[in-house]
What does this fold into?
Amino acid sequence: MDNLRVGNIEVIIGEKGGRFPFGNTLFIDDQVKVVVDPGAGLQKLAGLKQRSRVDLVLNTHYHLDHIAFNYLFDRSDIYASELESGCYRRLEEIALRYGFDEVYGSGWIPRWIARISDPGTPASPYSLQNRHEWVLSTARLDGVIRWGEELSFGSTEMEVVGAPGHTAGFCCLYFPHERAVYTGDIDLTDFGPWYVKDGDIDDFIASARKIADLPASTFITGHELGVLSREEFLPRLERYLRVIDERDRRILEVLDQPARLEEVVDRGLIYPRRYHIDDWIRAFEVIMTKKHLARLQEKKLVGCDQGYYVAL
It folds into this structure.
């Protein structure tokens, strides 16, 4: 897929059409030249670096598919969300924000750090857990961006819009002159919304509605679809958010009979069971299932007695 432009903003469609583990990267080609979320792929971003200087790299959040190639821009400043700046100082914070200690215990974290610190560690075919870029691309942070902050790069102005839910410090980026918004991981993929330990389902929904209410005519997703008009974005957003309700429905069906958390997880209601051999995927299934169970309990749709959940 060819790159697209919105004013001075070039949308670099990631490898494999921006499908995870790649993403769509923005290049703001103005007086200050800015790369946003360098996850488009090594070849594409190396090509960008060759054809233009890059003054600043912005990360909307700390997930590797959005920061993987920070390390390429060794002469650029790197800025990230103020609320997630600790991820660039301590690798342990990344693991804690994902919730791996909750699933596997705190002893799992130093073993993970040892794996990613070794460039020879084999990659997993299912997740980004063993990628050495975790170390390379969180090695430094030169500054932060804050929710509500307005930045100018020349004729291109940008507002940092707080949008918690995917992560606690997640940002979307609004460009008022272009009436465009980079929605990042409010990405409209078929998988649906994604939230683990430092995410929140209801916050995700509220943030998605907030972004939809911006006076934007162009929406740029962090994966796959890329540039959408408002008329395309809004109905797709509704379908995307309905995935949350579908996950609730599947869980309620399983809880027609009492079941423990592990029994629900083993059904693979979010990630198919064949992927659970990957430690990260298994942890994501556990944490996302727990979030749905807690939400269903708050709605008085599920009860829990002595570790057994059941639909009410």
